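> forwarded from #structure-qc
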């Protein structure tokens, strides 16, 4: 597919630089509903509006990170539509001890409501704010409690590789680990808890480092990754030879889950939500090679490149549905 539209200035419409009609849904390569394994939906009214777009783009069941207080209302409004990923109450981070004690209680509450997956957010900025990484004794308490309750694990460990370095967001002088060092704690966690499925958000934080991700997947058969963080994934794939990335997805087709990372909020409209699903459609199902319609501040000039992988139908079937359906069976 070739780009034909002349885009407006990037700042004009950040979710639709190319002037696309997102109501004109691109054709599907395979039929059936898609499971979105990474979203942030919790408000019933706002989620109802979002689901109109999800329905248009063939999104069926959705995994979401919602506060415990919102789970009952979401379940009542949308029975069977959502899988709830257990998260802490980040606003309670006044002291480590009270935060952890509250998190343990919340895990009990999420499990009682049917949750089967819990998330650790251990990106560099979060580690600094909490004063804890995955090796910290307080987070080890959470892991052990989650294990005893029967949870599977999800982690956000890495951030874009371009954010690490002396003049970057994560400076060593500010106490941050290097990009490579960031993953040591993840490997130790994977070693410690082999009997549960473990989901690495945002391609395990390693979309720009597929060799390292390949080694991790080969070493830990219980490790999976999701395709979420649309701008980051699009940018990371475009920086590499398409043939290399396509071969990776085909080789690890049973280890990758579809995810969008959409945050549902009152400041977003139809085109914002649809832009993410439109881009994913082009990325996985076509050989599109052109500008992304989504403004990307981390790309040169704020303009990201979108290079489609044109994955085979059987691979799409696994990434879109089967892997999520089988996730909890380990």
């Amino acid at each position: 597919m070739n780009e034909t539209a002349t885009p407006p200035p990037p700042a004009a419409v950040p979710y639709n630089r190319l002037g696309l009609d997102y109501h004109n849904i691109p054709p599907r390569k395979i039929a059936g509903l898609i499971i979105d394994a990474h979203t942030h939906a919790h408000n019933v009214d706002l989620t109802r509006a979002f689901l109109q777009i999800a329905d248009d783009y063939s999104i069926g069941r959705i995994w979401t990170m919602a506060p415990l207080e919102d789970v009952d209302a979401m379940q009542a409004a949308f029975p069977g539509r959502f899988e709830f990923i257990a998260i802490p109450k980040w606003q309670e981070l006044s002291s480590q001890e009270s935060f952890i004690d509250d998190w343990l209680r919340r895990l009990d509450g999420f499990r009682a409501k049917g949750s089967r997956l819990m998330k650790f957010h251990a990106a560099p900025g979060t580690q600094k704010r909490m004063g804890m990484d995955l090796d910290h004794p307080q987070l080890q308490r959470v892991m052990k409690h989650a294990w005893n309750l029967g949870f599977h694990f999800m982690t956000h460990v890495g951030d874009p590789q371009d954010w690490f370095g002396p003049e970057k967001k994560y400076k060593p002088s500010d106490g941050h680990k290097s990009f490579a060092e960031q993953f040591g704690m993840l490997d130790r966690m994977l070693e410690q808890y082999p009997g549960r499925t473990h989901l690495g958000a945002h391609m395990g934080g390693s979309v720009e480092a597929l060799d390292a991700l390949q080694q991790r997947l080969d070493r830990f058969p219980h490790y999976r990754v999701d395709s979420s963080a649309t701008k980051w994934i699009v940018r990371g794939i475009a920086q590499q030879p398409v043939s290399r990335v396509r071969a990776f997805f085909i080789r690890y087709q049973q280890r990758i889950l579809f995810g969008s990372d959409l945050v549902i909020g009152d400041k977003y409209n139809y085109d914002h939500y649809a832009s993410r699903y439109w881009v994913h459609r082009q990325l996985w199902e076509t050989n599109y090679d052109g500008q992304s319609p989504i403004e990307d501040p981390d790309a040169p000039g704020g303009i990201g490149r979108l290079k489609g992988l044109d994955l085979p139908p059987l691979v799409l079937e696994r990434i879109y549905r089967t892997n999520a359906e089988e996730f909890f069976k380990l």
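QC bot note: The first strand starts at residue 34 and ends at 40. The chain has twelve helices and eleven strands.
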